[in-house]
Design brief:
- The protein is an alpha/beta fold.
- The chain has 3 domains: 108 residues, ATPase, nucleotide binding domain (Nucleotidyltransferase, domain 5); 206 residues, ATPase, nucleotide binding domain (Nucleotidyltransferase, domain 5); 201 residues, Carbamoyltransferase, C-terminal domain (DHBP synthase), CATH 3.90.870.
- The protein is 31% helix and 19% strand.
- The strands form 5 sheets. Strands 13-22-21-14-15-20-16-19 form an 8-stranded mixed β-sheet, sandwiched between helices. It has a 5-stranded mixed β-sheet with strand order 3-2-1-4-5.
- The longest helix is centred in the middle third of the chain and has 29 residues.
């Protein structure tokens, strides 16, 4: 009889995951179902999605593990809407702390049998809810929450080496930037700076893209780095964050100011992260390092970590943000609660969403036609969709690429992607303005076969999850103009046939036709929209902008 475990995260970027005998069989982020970016707060839809896919009911589940920041028990009134577990249930429910869930999600899915684990984000759980803590409670008046945690994973369990906590001052308004929850944290400052530039704290990834357009101009330190601790320098904050953007027009009019501020925040974040790694590795040296938490999505900082020589082997969890909490919860249940002796599978596929049958794709096409009173004359199944798509890409067409189950995490890795030839003049501007409808400074990623990465990029690192930046070789800079950023870096994705055969074949055929083994890759969505989950969402997106072709498995739709 199979053992099922549900892991579920109730923070922003909510998600649920289902393990069957220790293997992830399905995982989904809430935003993909509700179509609301960074949605969270309850898990009705995500748990139902997982159970329906597996063809089981809640009574078939052995254990539920949840990560929630400020409560230990399931109380329906605390959540943003109905949960799947609102009614009385007999399945045991365990609640674990925020950073412990982050750490388990990374350690259990890493390729290492033993490793250190670093968690850095904006804020985690209160000290009193950290079951694994091995140090005295911080002294102060208010509540103290996790801001960075360092663990050692021995292949069976996680052991805390050092955890740092920060006081929560939610109602203090004396500073120009108000950090979410924690008073001192790297991720909190980065998110608050995002709010300063873009008007919300959920666009922190844009800040990394904006930074190369700015200059440091001799600004002071944003963090105090002393005695293994990191604290925000509020004197610097108050002196320089004096002109928050109130609209996109204001942002464009004073672009150089916001670019300079982004450059400063990015630079100071890099310094703080490298300092923290150096300090923690001094406590427990190990060649294998696993890194997670929202700050771990900063691909530029990850590049510098590898360049520093401090870390021999680095694994960054692809769902390092709060969407990855569900995976960590599930594996905590499998390893710590059930005490299984089965080795955790370290081969993490990012494609954990459900696939769609040909009949479902046909239904989506007919439904779009009915809802929009149109007839899609050029929508058909073809025998060799990869071959035809490669020809269209070589002809300069922009192709929506939808295949198999969706990616879990913030990056489109070749199952829900928009693809193009990076040599096409003005392709970056065209996709940003006519397809994605987003800011023109936003970069795109190159997708390249792993065996070809050294041909085009200086460092040639393996990066299947698009979590590191590389630098393009000078002789390829012109041909790769569509994926080269302002500072000549690229957030490269390396592709292998083992976990992405169709995408690998597409890149291979494109290379045969053009002599170039690199495709421009960006997520199948537009500004403010989660990556598409269903065929109908993909078709709606296709007809909302200037994409030329949409491929859904072996269906091709043209305009």
């Amino acid at each position: 009889m199979s053992t099922y475990i549900i892991g579920t995260g109730l923070s922003h970027d909510g998600s649920s995951c289902l393990l069957k005998d220790g293997e992830i069989i399905i995982a989904i982020e809430k935003e993909r179902l509700t179509r609301v970016k960074h949605d969270g707060g309850n898990d009705y839809l995500t748990v139902k999605y997982c159970l329906d896919h597996a063809g089981i009911e809640l009574k078939d589940v052995s254990l539920i593990v949840q990560a929630s920041n400020f409560e230990n028990k399931i109380k329906p009134e605390q959540y943003q809407g109905k949960r799947y577990f609102d009614a009385d249930i007999t399945t045991p429910v365990i609640t674990i702390s925020h950073h412990l869930a982050h750490a388990w999600g990374a350690a259990a899915t890493s390729p290492f049998s033993e490793c250190n684990v670093m968690v850095i984000d904006a804020a985690g759980s209160p000290y009193k809810q950290c079951l694994e803590v091995n140090q005295s409670e911080p002294q102060g008046i208010g509540m103290f929450c996790e801001k960075d945690s360092f663990y050692y994973f021995d292949g069976k369990t996680l052991k805390p080496v050092c955890k740092d906590f920060s006081e929560v001052r939610l109602f203090e308004d004396k500073h120009r930037l108000k950090l979410p929850t924690n008073y001192h944290s790297i991720g909190g400052l980065y998110s608050a700076a995002s709010f300063y530039m873009f008007g919300n704290m959920d666009d922190a990834g844009k800040l990394m893209g904006l930074a190369p357009y700015g200059k440091l101009n001799g600004k002071p330190s944003l963090f105090n780095l002393e005695n293994g601790k990191i604290e925000v320098n509020y004197n610097s904050v108050n002196a320089h964050f004096t002109n928050p953007s109130c609209s996109y027009n204001q942002f464009k009019e004073d672009f150089s100011h916001y670019a300079d501020m982004a450059c400063w925040v990015q630079h100071e974040t890099e310094k703080a992260v490298l300092y923290l790694f150096k300090e923690r590795l001094g406590l427990n040296p190990h060649p294998n390092m696993v890194y997670t938490g929202g700050v771990a999505l900063n691909a530029v900082t990850n590049h510098l970590l590898l360049k520093s020589g401090m870390i021999e082997n680095l694994f960054v969890q692809p769902s390092a943000g709060d969407n990855g909490l569900a995976i960590g919860c599930a594996y905590y249940g499998w390893c710590e609660i059930l005490k299984t002796t089965k080795k955790v599978n370290g081969s993490l596929s990012p494609f954990s969403g459900r696939s769609y049958a040909a009949s479902e794709i046909e239904t989506a096409i007919r439904l779009y036609e009915t809802d929009n009173n149109v007839r899609l004359h050029d929508a058909r199944q073809i025998d060799n969709v990869t071959e035809e798509a490669a020809c269209l890409l070589a002809d300069g067409k922009v192709v929506g690429w939808f295949t198999g189950g969706a990616e879990f995490g913030p990056r489109a890795l070749g199952h829900r992607s928009i693809l193009a030839d990076p040599r096409v003049a003005g392709i970056k501007e065209h996709i940003n303005s006519k397809i994605k409808f987003r800011e023109d400074f936003r970069p795109f990623a190159p997708a390249v076969r792993l065996e070809d990465v050294d041909e085009y990029f200086i460092y040639g690192w393996e990066s299947p999850y698009m979590i590191l930046v590389d630098k393009v070789k000078p002789e390829w800079k012109q041909q790769l103009a569509g994926v080269v950023h302002q500072d000549e870096t690229c957030r490269a994705q390396t592709v292998t046939p083992e976990w992405n055969q169709d995408f690998y074949d597409l890149i291979s055929k494109f290379r045969e036709k053009t002599g170039l083994g690199v495709l421009l890759n960006t997520s199948l969505n537009k500004r403010g929209m989660p990556i598409v989950e269903t065929p109908l969402q993909a078709i709606d997106l296709f007809f909302s902008g200037a994409m030329d072709v949409l491929v859904i498995d072996n269906f091709m739709i043209k305009k």
